[in-house]
Amino acid sequence: QVQLVESGGGLVQAGGSLRLSCAASGIIFRFYSMGWYRQAPGKQRELVAIVGYGGNTNYADSVKGRFIISRDNARNTTYLQMNSLKPEDTAVYYCATLTPLRFGQGTQVTVSS
Questions:
Q1: Cβ–Cβ contacts within 10 Å for residue 75, how many?
Q2: Whether the bond into 41 is cis, omega within 30 of 0
Q3: Cα–Cα distance list, 93 to 7, 31, 54, 74, 79 (Å)
Q4: What is the dihedral of CA 97, 18, 90, 66, to 10 degrees?
Q5: What's the Cα-to-Cα distance from 82 to each of 16, 27, 79, rounded to whole Å?
Q6: Using CB atoms within 10 A of its CB, is residue 69 exposed (0-12), middle (13-18) or buried (19+)?
Q7: How far is CA 1 from CA 4, 19, 40, in A?
Q8: Which of these, 69, 87, 80, lies nearest to 16 by C-alpha position?
Q9: What angle do CA 17, 31, 23 make, to 5 degrees?
């Protein structure tokens, strides 16, 4: 049974930082490309960042230069380091395997102005 468990969300002031973690189980983690998505109230879920099984990364324009995605295959964990946070980053953040696309339960990130 595949499980993706996110942690690290919370309330932070604008300009602050948070690090999200996603622990995966039930898959051979090193073979999977992983991603972080987010969904703000009243908006569609959007892709924030991906890290391929080879370690290559890609980011949405809205977070480039502020967020860093990484992975630790020994710990079956994906991370999202979020810096210089803005109120518009407020959303539920979801970890995902990309192929097939499956999501964790999400973690709330709230950025106050």
A1: 12
A2: no
A3: 10, 22, 23, 23, 12
A4: -80
A5: 8, 26, 10
A6: buried
A7: 10, 26, 28
A8: 87
A9: 40
pLDDT attached to residue 63? 98
Span 46-105, pLDDT tens digits? 999 999 999 999 999 999 999 999 999 999 999 999 999 999 999 999 999 998 999 999
List of residues 6+ apart from 80 with CB closer than 8 A: 19, 20, 22, 36, 48, 49, 67, 68, 69, 93
State the amino acid at position 35 in one-letter form.
G
Find the radius of gyration of the CA atoms of the chain. 13
